[in-house]
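re the bet — no i am not wrong, look at it urself. input seq straight from the record:
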Amino acid sequence: MLGRKIQNYQIEELLGEGGMGAVYKATDTQLERTVAIKALHTHLTNDPVFLERFKNEARLAAKLSHPTIAQIYNFIHDGDEYFIVMEYIQGTPLDVYLRQNKTIVFNSALQIIHKVLAGLSHAHQKTILHRDIKPGNIMLLPNGDVKLMDFGIAKISGATKLTGIGKIIGTMEYMSPELLKGEEASIQSDLYATGITLYEMITGNMPFKANSEAQLLHQIINTKHTNPNPEIYNFDSSFLNVFDKVLHKNPSRRPASSQEFQEIINEYLDSESSPSISLIPSFDKIKIPTINFGSLSNILSFDNGSPFKIIAILGILAATLFIGIEIYFNSKSNINYQASTVQTNSTSAKDPSVTNETSSNTVVSLKSEKSNQSESEPYNNSPKTANNSISEKQQKNTNTESSTENTSGSKLNKNKIITTSEPQSQKKDVSSTPASQNIPSVIYNEKPTQVVTEKVVLQEQKSSPVEEKKSKTINVPALDVRVRLAETISSEDNKKINDLVKMEVTSSVYSNSDLIIQNGAEAFARITKIKPSGKSSSYLEIQIEKVKCINGTWLNLKMIPLGKKGSSTEPIIFQKGLSISPNPKIIPQTIKI
């Protein structure tokens, strides 16, 4: 498919592949815009149920027009192939985010679900039921918006079923009791799945735990969900009543509509503590750091087009003047004033490897800086307070590090070692500074009359004796590993069954905070079936088996074989760089690093 042109759409990249089809990134050569194209697997085009379901997705999604729902542009029937052309959305699936970050703070989780409910409300008003609400079908966009994806099994309320008698369709963990009993889908079954998703976002767990599908089925239908501990997940205990309502076994006891669910959420939303959610910093906003007077404050954001832009600028100037006056008159009392982006910790002298820490001296940046947070950080925003008194011995050997992680691409910035040209006798603190800037900082010493202005420069870290690290035993769970082909293979190659195929890792893998697999690490697949074109249809199938660990050992992987059938005249080719989807998983094991 890569490189192929379908009507006016040029296929450029494989984005993902599932049981029903594959999704590609393409360019509309007429309108000059990027689109996504979903292609139904060719072996399913002869199956009337799957074909009708594919057409049904296009028809229903085309009826919807809402900011939180992916827009359908076109439906193409080309020979024995079928395609849906839709809006290209660049973001992070919620299930991927949760795998990497486990949970989302309460208020941000409510904001996400509130937006999902807005899209559901629009669909329900059109009498369309989604029927597969889950984190995998919710996309988090970089600007903080949310997109509801995949109406593949959606249906018009009251319409004829596409599934056979006695069959159910959906994802069991998110299916309501009545659906599992074979009853009709409803607005309440969509809201139940939304409630399960909210529960998972806040706690990182599912409300029902079982060792088998049969046991899970019994629990969902017959037993009450497990209520989370409000103190652990930092929400009001009265919100447990919301879980009880939306996850009730009886559909009539749940909210009557998406709007009612939204109204319930509104009672708990704290607009001041979390004004917006975003996966990556938005550089088209002015960031105003608030001053910490012993309480926790957040960063306020004003849009460029806001009528309060002038007020915001004046606020910055007033805040800067106020900081200088307050620090001058209170420095003898050793009171710390710090911007919310500066953190202090009394343990830095003991452990210079601790990240994002400075000594107790106050550092005030005279220049506004763009946010250097990770893409995932706004969802788990936990401001830290400063220690008010630190001895001079604890003010030595400060090491400031900066690292970010991208949830969609898992990119890590290298640590930055920042030093100043200040004489050793006066050196007390260094502020964390982006690599691309040399920002003058004012360092206030204990004596208010001494103000030292220094220019922060970046220097390469000097070599120092390397301490021998002790080995660490880690229990590695079933983590996803993103891989792609490191070589091109074909059904016409002189290869045999069981021959190895080179792969490479495209994203570092962590178990908690421990690096397990480095980005670019080797991986191998094995050819399980190969048949050249000629007398019969060509066929090529591989199975990914192992990946190289950070300690040099090999970790075993598991996933279903990936195979593709061609024709008697057309070979099957897997191009170098082809991303494998779904991701293989590590077989749980214990390793030493």
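see?? Confidence is low (pLDDT under 50) at residues 158-167, 272-313, 331-464. told u. also The CA atoms of residues 58 and 146 lie 20 Å apart. so pay up
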